[in-house]
Amino acid sequence: MDIGQKLKELRVLKGLTQEELADRAELSKGFISQLERNLTSPSIATLTDILQCLGTTLGDFFNEGPEEQIVFEKNDYFEKYDPELKNNIRWIIPNAQKNRMEPILLTLEAGGETYPDTPHEGEEFGYVLSGAVSIHLGSRIYRAKKGESFYFTADKKHFLTSKAGAQLIWVSCPPSF
User: Which of 51, 112, 134, 172 has its CA 20 to 30 A from that of 80?
Assistant: First the structure.
């Protein structure tokens, strides 16, 4: 761990200059500068004081949990094809069920549909990349074509169909797929 770099990042994140941090921690600006460049090391008591001024603790400062994946490539996707419903679902953020949203890339073949989804808490959003879809929401049917989006609360039975095929991004919050 690069303690100096991490201290600098925290200081900048808090919008403090070296001089402001030094004043708050009752240290010199030169000492803060040397710390950030790893030219000196603070005592535990001094580091604790600095971290308190930065709004954190020793435990949080040194806790380096595993870094979460941010960018996902095609080989990260999880894919499922359903020949009966003539659709292909690609989870484009494969670990999304732990998040509040779960975006998928949905491809509906001609005559394809999605599984009917029972009413549940949450929201659904979609953006049609190609083709057109019919959104079945309760007893109503809405249509969306390429370049259009849709949004609804998921408190009614809902599913999608496509007569000629479509590809769309579908986001469910909380995840329900």
Answer: 134
Enter the tokens of residue 81: 């094809």
Is the pTM for the entire model greater than 0.70?
no
* Residues 127 and 161: beta-carbon distance below 8 Å: no
Please enumerate in sequence order all residues whose Cβ is within 8 A of that of 118, keeping only pairs 6 or more positions apart, or say none. 157
- What's the pLDDT tens digit per position in 9-65? 999 989 999 999 999 999 999 999 999 999 999 999 999 999 999 999 998 898 877
Alpha-carbon gap, residue 177 to 165, rounded angstroms: 20
Q: How many CA atoms lie within 13 A of 54 on its CB side?
A: 25
Collect all residues with Cβ–Cβ distance below 8 Å to 69 and sequence separation of at least 6: 76, 95
User: What does the H/E/C string look like for 3-25?
Assistant: HHHHHHHHHHHCCCCHHHHHHHH
Do residues 145 and 163 lie in contact, with contact meaning Cβ atoms separated by under 8 Å? no
